[in-house]
Structure formats: C-alpha cells, structure tokens
Write a structure and sequence with these properties.
The structure holds two protein chains of two kinds. By secondary structure, chain A is an alpha/beta fold. Helices cover 35% and strands 23% of the residues of chain A. In chain A, α2 packs parallel to α4 and α6 crosses α8. The termini of chain A are far apart. By secondary structure, chain B is mainly alpha-helical. Helix content of chain B is 81%, strand content 0%. In chain B, α3 packs across α9. The chains are: A alpha/beta, B mainly alpha. At the A-B interface, β6 and α4 of A face α7 and α8 of B.
C-alpha cells in the first residue's frame, strides 16, 4: 500500500479545468518536487493534500485513509507571510503545538528548543520575524511544522523570494532535515535547478489543466545525499538540462 | 532621523505662529477678525479662571470618549463578524453603507425629537458619526489579514473560533488602533455640531456663546483648545502604537 496517493483527482473552478484526472503515489520519506509553468495547477494539487481545497472528483489517500480538511499531519510552508509578526521566533515555533493536548507544557518547551536548534535559530529565539532575514523566516516556518508533528511538509515556492546564496544554503538545510527527520515533502517550484538539486523525484507538469508531462527519478541517478559539490558534477548538469528541455516544451509564445 | 523630523515640525509651526502674530500686530487685518496668537493665549489663560474652560473641555472630552467607547465596543465585534463571515457582511453592509452616507448634521433635528436636548442626543450623534464608519473599517481590516496566516493556523489544528482570537485579532490589531485614532478625531467634529445646536456646557457651547458677543479671541481660544486636545490625544495614541507594535519595525 502506498503512503500518499492521488486517485483520479480533478479540479474545476466553474468552467475552468485546473487539474485533469491526476494519479500519483508518493512514498513515506520521499521529497517530490512539482515543477511546471506558473498557473499550471501544481499549487492547487499541493493545497488539496493540505486539505485547504477539495478535489472536484477523485480523492487523496494518506496511509489508507481518504483526506478531508486540514489538520496538523500536513503542514504548510508559504513563500510569504510564513511567520506571524506578532510572535517571536520562539513563539512562532511553539505555535505549531498550540492546539496539541497530548503534550505537557514541559514537553512543548523541550520540543520548541529542539527544533529551534535543528534549524539553527537558537540565538534568534527572542527576535521578531520582521527583523530577521527572509531565509531565517523560512527556517522558522519549517521548525513550526516540525514542532506541530506534521508528517508531510507542503512547501509552496518557499525559497522563491530569497537571493541565490540563501536559497542554496536553505536547500542543503532542508534536504538534511528532511532526511534526518524522515519527513515526506511536496515541494512546488518553477526553478529547474532547485527541483533537480532537492528532489528524490521531479514531476514535470504540462500547462493547465495540470497533468504529468514526465517523471524524473533524481535519486536513482544522483543518489540520496546532496551537497554543493554535486551541483558542479556533469551528472547533475545532464539531469538539469533534461528537465530544462521538458519545461521549455511546455512554454508557448504567450509566455514572453 | 526622527529627531530632525520633529525639529522641522516645530520650526514650521513656530514660523506660522510668528507670521500670524506679525499680520495681526501689523494691522494688516482687523483684530476683530484675527486677533494675534499672543492675545488668544492670554484670553485662553483668562478663560480657564473666568469661564471654567477646563470644566467645559472636560465635559466635551467625556462626551467624546463616552460615545467613542460605546461605538468601538459595538463596531469591533460586529466588524469582525462582518469581515469573517460572508453572510454577516452581506446582510449588514447595505444598511451600514446607507447610514454611513447620511451627514450627521442632517440628523440633528431627528435626534432632538427622539432624545430631547440632553446628553442622549449628543452621545447618539457622536455614536452615529463613528460607529458606521468604524464598523466598515474593522470589517476591511479582518478581510485584509493574509490568507497564509489562517491557513498556517488551520494546518496546525486551529478551529474557526480559535483562528478569530489567535490570528485575526492579533494580525489586525495595529491597523485597528490606527483606525480608532482616526475615528476618534472625527468624533470631535460631530461633538462641536452637537454642542452648538443643543448644549449649555462643553467647548462647542463656549465657542458659540463667545461668537454671540463677537468675542473673537474667545472663539479662537476655544478652537485652539480643541486643537491642543486633539494633538495630545493623537500623540499619546501614536506613542502607545509604537510601543505595543514595535515588532512591526523592520
């Protein structure tokens, strides 16, 4: 039995078909990148996993159970407004456990400290989110979903607003955390390089309505460990170019 | 630099007051129409002892704050409901929009018929002028809370009512305080209208009395008093805003 499965999922808004009948299975602990042109429906699919939108038909099954509305098993990391400005860094991480009744106050405190350390923000725990860098804010959001106990992290172009250096740093950090913690990640991006570097598997989307154009198994070709050296290897280059050509094939003249 | 900004502000105000003084003292305009600021200040000082100016200012401030607090206590919860639940907004917005466009002075006669010339009329007029404006501002503030905040809360297990308290409220609070500060200023406008029409106390009453005897310095002293109260209130709320919402500073 697969861990997460999209079973003939479709989505329409009125007359607009956003997602064509969609089938995909994701293994536990896998990082899957959704790569495709903007507005292709990949974000809609990810939001459906989060329970923030529901399929028009078909269903999404997690560990054998059809998914309904949002709960803390599936955590979101957005590109912007990812941390509450009125809570400190520590407060934001602790917020992930605010509605959990299965943990004592002491356990919540320990977990907060643990995940702050995991994303390297212990020294910034008393800072306000508006006073730290965009990259740190994304780390706050990741720590919050981990503290919440989410099994699946849903990330919607989370590093899209960052400069190249911070982006690279966070990609390495995310990959490390995801493997150490055994989390399943669905990562939406339109950055070919990012998808190739981060993912175990890249799903390349067609234009709307969203359908799978190609599936590329990155881990089979590059192995599971990702370091910055890998970025300069010929194997990585070949893979990146392959993805680039796939994405280019979806472009039309209206894109310019 | 905030320091240089306040220096510029003080200097420009001082220049304006000096120009006014020069125009009046130089005899360019009759003192009957434009008494010099020095004369207005002396009159103001005298009015504190001879005309109970502070008492009247206190009465006016009490009316403004009383009516404003009633209006805010109603506008905040109702506005939050209007902004959070589409059907509440759809049900109330047409009525609120209609009343919002009625000019308060046009409702003075009706208000006197309903409430007589006592405090009821004044409170009602002030409430009318602020509640319907504030409730729409609050509803908009709630709607402007980024959906990411709500969705973040939903995916850590927050229910709808918890989201109102833990997300909507803190997210909108800074703009709410700003909007309250602005609405409180409008309250003073309506107060003077109410006090001119029907009152025997308050700053509007003092100003209107002085006009009947052509006491231009007293009229201006009354106006300046309102200005000073307004300026002080505004500064206090701004300072509180900076203190409470310091986390917004980047």
């Amino acid at each position: 039995m697969s861990y997460l499965a999209f079973e003939n999922v479709t989505k329409r808004y009125g007359q607009t078909e956003v997602v064509a009948p969609f089938q995909l299975t994701v293994a536990k602990g896998e990082l899957v990148a959704f790569l495709g042109p903007s507005g292709c429906g990949k974000t809609t699919l990810m939001r459906m996993v989060g329970g923030l939108e529901s399929p028009t038909s078909g269903r999404i099954v997690l560990s054998g159970e059809p998914l309904g509305g949002p709960d803390r098993r599936r955590g979101m990391v957005f590109q912007s407004y990812s941390a509450f400005p009125w809570l400190t860094v520590e407060g934001n991480v602790a917020y992930g456990m605010r509605y959990r009744t299965d943990l004592t106050a002491a356990e919540k405190k320990d977990r907060t400290a643990h995940f702050l350390a995991l994303v390297g923000l212990t020294d910034f725990r008393d800072s306000w989110p508006n006073r730290i860098s965009g990259g740190m804010r994304q780390r706050v959001a990741i720590a919050r979903t981990l503290a919440a106990g989410s099994e699946i992290l849903l990330m919607d172009e989370p590093f899209g607003a960052l400069d190249a250096q911070r982006r690279e740093f966070l990609q390495v950090a995310l990959r490390r955390i995801q493997r150490d913690e055994g989390k399943t990640v669905i990562f939406v991006t339109h950055d070919v390089e990012e998808a190739a570097f981060l993912a175990d598997r890249v799903i390349v989307f067609t234009r709307r309505p969203a359908a799978i154009l190609a599936e590329v198994d990155v881990t089979a070709q590059l192995g599971p460990a990702r370091s910055l050296d890998l970025r300069e290897s010929p194997e990585f280059f070949a893979l990146r170019n392959k993805l680039l050509h796939l994405v280019r094939s979806t472009a039309t003249e209206d894109d310019t | 630099m905030p320091g240089s900004k306040s220096i510029i502000g003080t200097a420009s105000t001082l220049a304006l007051v000096l120009a006014w003084e020069a125009v009046s003292q130089g005899g360019l305009v009759s003192e009957r129409f434009l008494p010099a600021p020095s004369v207005v200040l002396v009159t103001l000082w005298k009015m504190i002892f001879e005309r109970d100016l502070l008492y009247h200012a206190g009465v006016s401030a009490l009316r403004v704050w009383g009516a404003f607090l009633i209006a805010a206590a109603m506008a905040v919860p109702i506005g939050i409901m209007m902004g959070s639940f589409r059907w509440v907004g759809a049900a109330l917005e047409p009525v609120v929009d209609f009343i919002r466009y009625l000019p308060v002075p046009a409702l003075v006669p009706l208000s006197i018929i309903w409430f007589g010339v006592g405090e009821g009329t004044k409170i009602f007029l002030l409430w009318l002028g602020t509640f319907f404006q504030l409730v729409l501002l609050v509803a908009d503030d709630v709607r402007r809370v980024p959906h990411e905040y709500h969705e973040t809360a939903m995916t850590v297990g927050a229910t709808g009512s918890r989201r109102l308290l833990d997300v909507s409220l803190p997210a909108m609070l800074p703009t709410l305080v700003d909007n309250m500060r602005i609405t409180l200023g409008w309250c003073w406008t309506y107060l003077i209208i109410a006090e001119i029409v029907a009152a025997n106390s308050g700053l509007g009453f003092v100003i209107w009395q002085a006009r009947r005897f052509f006491q231009t310095p007293e009229v201006m002293a009354g106006v300046v008093t309102i200005g000073i109260i307004g300026l002080l209130t505004d500064q206090v709320i701004r300072a509180a805003h900076r203190r409470w919402f310091g986390y917004l500073v980047r």
